[in-house]
Amino acid sequence: MRFELMWPWVLLLAVALAVTWHLVRRHRASVAERRDRPAGLRDAELICVESQFRSKSRWPIVARVDRAYRLPSGLVVLVELKTRSTAAVRASDVIQLSAQRVAVEDELRVQVSDEAFVIFPGRHSAPPTSRAVRLMSREQIEAVAARHRRLIDGLDRPQWPDSEHVCHGCGQRAACGAAGEVLAGAIRRR
């Protein structure tokens, strides 16, 4: 058989293999995602991944949701994926998920559960660890947003953390400038 007659078949085989490879990878990812869900979400439908939502409150909140699931009851549950090595939920995680809830409820007009999950990666092929968290109310989140606005406008003064360690991981450390360095020294002297 001459090559001129074979090349369409070779091309067809290559396309078939590429499509099969893609479908197998997608299936494996779907199985792994379902396996790694918290037990309470095993029967839930994944409705969004890495999606952005915006609230319609006085101080609009724009939130990027890692994952959202719809339970058979219709209630939506939020999941935040973290990459840090310690499986400890921080107050900032609860604030972040609570703000996401406000934005999702406003944009999708759905009811979001008061409980959400923070998932941490497993170490050394161990399964991921999930922690359930209780979300803040809409009023509490609006108060946080209002305080944030007052801080930006210079109407309120920041409350410094109890630990210098918090400053080292803060995304606003450079903006603090000398005030942050004074704070670090004051904490060190306590």
Written overview of the protein:
This protein starts with a helix and ends with a helix. With 190 residues, the protein is an alpha+beta fold. Mean pLDDT is 83; it is low at 186-190. The chain contains six helices and five strands; from the N terminus they run H-E-E-E-H-E-E-H-H-H-H. It has two domains: 39-155, Trna Endonuclease, Chain: A, domain 1 (3-Layer(aba) Sandwich), CATH 3.40.1350; 157-189, no CATH class. A five-stranded mixed β-sheet has the order 1-2-3-4-5. This is PD-(D/E)XK nuclease family protein. InterPro entries: PDDEXK-like_dom_sf (IPR011604).
Main features:
190 residues; alpha+beta; Trna Endonuclease, Chain: A, domain 1; 2 domains; five-stranded mixed β-sheet; 6 helices; 5 strands
Biggest sheet: strands side by side, in what order? 1-2-3-4-5
Indicate the structural class: alpha+beta
Instruction: Specify the CATH class of the largest domain.
Output: Alpha Beta
Average pLDDT reading: 83
* Overall structural domain count: 2
Low-confidence stretches: 186-190
Rg, rounded, reads 23 Å
Distinct helical segment count: 6
CATH-level-2 architecture of the largest domain = 3-Layer(aba) Sandwich
Calculate the terminal CA-CA distance, rounded to whole Å: 86 Å
Secondary structure: number of strands: 5
| CATH topology value of the largest domain | Trna Endonuclease, Chain: A, domain 1
Q: Beta-strand percentage?
A: 15-25%
